[in-house]
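Deviations from the work plan: none for this task. Representative record:
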Amino acid sequence: MPEWLKLGGIAIVVIGLALRLRTTLVVVTAAIFTGLAAGLPLFSNEGIFANLPQLPLLVREGQTGIINMLGKAFADTRFVTLFIITLPAVGLAERYGLQEQAAALIRRFRAATVGRLLIIYQLFRILHGMLGIRLNGHPAFVRPLVYPMSIGAAEANLGVKTAGAVPADAAERIKAADAASENYGNFYGQNLSPVQAGILLVYGVMRGLGFEIGVLDLVRYTTPIVAASVILGALQFYWLDRSLLSAAKRGADV
Amino acid sequence: MSSLVSHLLSLEAVYALVGTVLLVFAGLTFLDRRHSHRLGTGFFWLTFGVIFIFGGILPSWLTGLLVIAMVAIDGAGRVSRGSDDIRSTTPLQKGRRLGDRIFLPVLVIPIVTFATAAAFRLSGLDVSRGALVGLGFGSVAAMIVGLALTGGTVREMMQAGRRLNESMGAVNILPQLLASLGVIFTAAHVGDLIAGGIQQIVPDGNLFLLVLANCFGMALFTIVMGNSFAAFPVIATGVLVPLIIKPYGVNPAMAAILTLTAGSSGTLMTPMAANFNIVPAALLEMRDQYGVIKFQLPFALTIWSLHVVLMWLFIKFL
């Protein structure tokens, strides 16, 4: 089989996502296609598949099967889905008015805007990175706290009195900005500590390639990019504030 | 005794807790008579719960087949949100009296997470595992605090959790599914193909174009893998070291860390990084599942360009 056929998996993902087909199905199809194109068997030659006749595609001596890899990687990465356990507590608190209270809290600060809130949140996440703490802030902070606070700030800024009265388009952009603030702070801030996974990965890989480098040098050379991420984030959040206001004014004129 | 403690503090214990929560969600779905896809949705979360609890001991081929079964249910359009509109019955009156105390349950989660991570560090254990275990126990603590504070029932709480989980839907398994795709890409040596392709296009001897190709390759492969950590070894081995660091005697620490974060620009742009871009859009109940990526795009392209310029300047003048 030609080598380039392996890239077919990438093509399946690109086309599948572009056509908005069901993502889970697209990903599994791409995985199986790529594996088969690389000449991998479907199953490992072990367990109940050990004594089968060696059918093509099904098993091959000494090679790990595609389905086995799929299952093992899926089980090994359960940690990325731990956030599900936060949902009952967050759901209960929201039922008893968490979002309304977070919005009320932020309205007590006269100077609060959506943009300023998100600049502070990004810095807060960079601080986590410096302290060597790595966590998924989307379920822990963004959904229960940052999002309702940013909507509350928008209500105050736009002069909307009742809760839930922020226009849907504005709310959609605020939500996107909330998630982006988390990602900006998390991605670039985490390299500021020498115990973080990214720094250790780079150290390990470069060492394997014959370069002994200091982890603190890695931290030093990432600081300009962290600074750039803060400035770019601040600019984008500042523009968000301005465009929310001007959109609200346009809306009021009509 | 110490082995009991180490079992309790293991990731498997937390996985069992998550799995149990998923089984409860599945049970509530089966009981939801007005659910439009009661059986499909119920079996989907039931299977996920089983994988969570037993993933460490099931043979990997069986886990793989269970995953394919889940994807088949979702592919047939049988996973949807439930009928219960809990919002319409929100006991807000009671919530008002709670005031700022309603923040307590959600603050318990990060506090316990950090405390556990710190305790793991002080005892010389793996801090990342401490944070994950802490998230699990912090969430259980948050449930207890929440119930005590609001006087709500366990069933009410689990229904609220199920509503959130079902409104996110099958997107929740994407991060794990994409990690599996990454493993298969690696086994198929897709990265070597990409690195080889870059080596062929780039003309030798033009430092700026080499830096550009290195940062482009890193971002591109991160977009494909959804993960800069998976892309880094491939690009470092195939492009950065043989084409830039060795021939030009470049500072390896500088070039390596800038290559890694050039990949982070790719992470901001790709739906393959589902846990950062797609799951949050679902978690915030956005209309457009690509809304987060669209917002991040101008930031990502700008900071990626800065990587190219910065690495080139560092090599030239350092």
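Residues 15 and 196 of chain A are 35 Å apart (CA to CA).
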